[in-house]
Design brief:
CATH superfamily of the largest domain: Ubiquitin-related
Number of helices: 13
Distance between the termini: 51 Å
Number of strands: 9
CATH class of the largest domain: Alpha Beta
Shape: globular
Helix content: 25-40%
Length: 356
């Protein structure tokens, strides 16, 4: 009798693949394969990101902050920037109008102009980073404390001109021209410039900012928080989101006027802690969202300088801390919902032992 070991291996592999797609937690539709992505050598996926952010939003964020915050799911920006054939639309449609039309239904039940913060996860070439639209209802700078209009200038000391850039479109995407942005505010967060570390820690840097700024302000703006900074390449994101924001306003507030120029609603990439490896981008992104409330921006005068030492990278990566936190949320939810594993399926022991 001859045993075909190759055939047995194929059958075993097929069984394993089927098991991977079995749901272990109905809430969030988390499958066994998603759970395995918590291993230290894996990228976390969109399912885990959305599950964690939903749990954070509903359980950890207080009611006041929930009411002033909106979090888009992980597919929003991909849908917004999806490439299109202009000939499929009326000739009068601009690129921004077409992009808006592609995601119009996403906001049918919400007016984002009633929110302070709109969080938008972005995935580009398997890398996760975060865009945040801040105070979209404002028309200019106001005092952070009492909301009165102010005319505090941005800090242009040490400013430098930045030439127009030639950019290549990301595959399957149609995005706005980044050259309308103040590219200096993106170059300051480039990986080359981040090598010149500034400041001490968040508490000290925030206090220094308050002392240095005569008046702390808030303003309408679009920020990019990227743990593997793309510098000026991220200007495409803010330009695209500003175009969408303008079209969204016209739809929700048709009889009102508002300035959506790059000068009125500035875009910027911020200097934030950088990941020490190539796989923890998703973990850093969800940590950025949490820190936005735990250690808030104290002044929106550009350039915003006090988040470079926002937190220690150890809060995310040391001993897989953030992965273990995400694992605990899943396990606690399974216990809370009294989830039962599919027959003959056991949760694997995860590799969560690496130091960085």
């Amino acid at each position: 009798m001859v045993i075909d070991l190759c055939l047995d291996d194929e059958i075993e592999k097929e069984i394993e693949i089927k098991e991977d797609f079995k749901i272990i937690l109905e809430e969030g539709q988390i499958k066994l394969n998603d759970y395995k992505m918590l291993n230290s050598y894996e990228f976390i996926n969109d399912i885990l990101i959305e599950f964690y952010l939903n749990d954070w939003y509903t359980k950890k964020l207080n009611k006041e902050d929930r009411e002033r915050t909106y979090v888009f799911n992980t597919y929003f920006y991909t849908a917004l920037a999806k490439s299109f054939n202009a000939s499929d639309y009326p000739a009068r449609y601009t690129a921004s109008q077409i992009r808006h039309k592609q995601v119009k239904r996403w906001t049918k039940d919400v007016d984002i102009f009633q929110k302070d913060f709109v969080f938008i996860p972005v995935n580009e070439s398997n890398h996760w980073f975060l865009a945040v639209i801040c105070f979209p209802y404002l028309s200019g700078k106001v005092n952070m404390i009492d909301g009165t209009p102010v005319n505090e200038p941005d800090d242009d000391a040490g400013g430098y001109p930045w030439p127009r850039i030639t950019y290549s479109a990301v595959r399957d995407r149609s995005e706005a021209d980044p050259n309308d942005e103040d590219l200096r505010l993106f170059d300051m967060a480039s990986r080359g410039n981040l090598s010149k570390q500034q400041g001490l820690d968040y508490e000290t840097d925030a206090e220094v900012t308050k002392i240095f700024r005569r008046i702390q302000v808030k303003r309408p703006c679009i920020l990019v928080l990227d743990s593997y900074s793309g510098g000026v390449n991220r200007a495409r994101i803010t330009a695209t989101l500003r175009g969408w924001l303008e079209q969204e306003y016209f739809v929700k507030h048709p009889r009102q006027k508002k300035d959506f120029s790059p000068e009125a609603i500035k875009g910027a990439a911020l200097r934030v802690p950088q990941q020490p490896n190539n796989k923890d981008c998703g973990l850093f992104m969800i940590h950025f969202v949490e820190m936005f409330f735990k250690r808030p921006i104290v002044d929106y005068t550009f350039p915003i300088r006090h988040l470079e030492n926002w937190f220690s990278v150890d809060e995310v990566v040391l001993n897989c801390r953030k992965r273990k936190e995400l694992q605990c949320v899943i396990l606690n939810k399974m216990e809370e919902k009294r989830s039962t594993m599919p027959e003959e399926i056991e949760l694997p022991i995860l590799d969560l032992d690496y130091m960085l």
